[in-house]
Known about the structure:
This protein is mostly beta strands. Helices cover 3% and strands 62% of the residues. The protein contains one helix and 17 strands.
Amino acid sequence: GANIEGQFDYDGGIYFSPDVYLDWKPTNYISAYAYFTGGVSQNTMSSIFDVSHYFMPAMAYGNSYLPCAIDAGVNLGPFKDATIKVYGGYAFANDWYMPIVDMDEQMYGNHNKKMEQVNMRGWHIGTAASYSYKNWGKISARYTYAPQESLKEGYYMWRDRANHVVNASLVVTPIAPLDITLDYEYRAGRHVYKHQTHAIDLLGITPGYEKTSLRQVNDLSLGALYRFTDQWSFFARLENLFNHKYELVYDIPSQGFTGLV
């Protein structure tokens, strides 16, 4: 099928995008899929603040448009409660908001951190695996690689422009009402572009933009959930056990070790 969407605000225009879902399951242990999607994405303040609460709330954010996003993968399993997945994709994202630091514009004595519309192009590939042991627990891990070659080349969904992302989780259920969870996230190659209007292109970087590291995410968290009834439960969570420091966006540090109950 196809999406046909029209806009009647200042952006105007009619947009076309695919809406195709293909699934194939030749056996009970092998399946494959390919999705071709797209459409208009509304950039609400809530979606902007999901990236960072430090962007200017007084700014007006227009819509973004995905001409086509392709996602495909192969699932293997379950084989004795173990599954393996290989996946990848490519996407075109027009007027997609990405964090930018304006070095020539000063806001309250600091550099202006803002979202700027960029036409993004990029692919990603990865693999995932999981294993469950009866009702005692489950372990899962996922690795995704997405090259971030330049200002306009990269995986549009990762606003921190990470190259390598690892996620792992271990859930143990020693007794029926209690779940103990250990989560790990690693994000390497994170960076942001500084916009310098008068910058000179000496290193082959897009004129006027300079890449700056945000440092890697290396986050280990421990949590517990106890269910008294279906309606009442108690949870506790300790985050960033390594007390690792990195930047959420440029010049905005992350929290260190924290806890929540």
